[in-house]
Amino acid sequence: QVQLVESGGGLVQPGGSLRLSCAASGSIFIINDMGWYRQAPGKERELVATITPGSNTNYADSVKGRFTISRDNSKKTGYLQMNSLKPEDTAVYYCHGLIRRDISSGFTVYWGQGTQVTVSS
Fold first, then answer.
1. What is the spatial distance between Cα 45 and Cα 95, in angstroms, rounded to a whole number?
2. What is the pLDDT of residues 17-61, one digit of tens each?
3. CA distance linking residue 12 with residue 28, whole number of Å
4. DSSP β-ladder status, 77-82 and 67-72
5. Are 99 and 30 in contact (CB under 8 A)?
């Protein structure tokens, strides 16, 4: 089975940094676009950042200049480096990937299980 497994969340002080990882496993031919979403209590899930296979990126205005999305295609792993964290960044962060499982298959959306990021003093 194809699976996305997140890691790296935790509790951090305002101004601190965290690096989230999203490792894809299983039968995978191609990982197309990847992205990170987040959902805070009482709020809708929102897009944080996206990255193409060629490493073109887009960011939500709220995280520009502070977060960096990246990927290692050989390792089938995506990353979200979060610097200068603010309390309003507190949320569950989810990895998203558009994955083609084999040469005869189309692309399918997969989600990670989510990892909690809490920014508090």
1. 12
2. 999 999 999 999 989 999 999 999 999 999 999 999 999 999 999
3. 34
4. antiparallel
5. yes
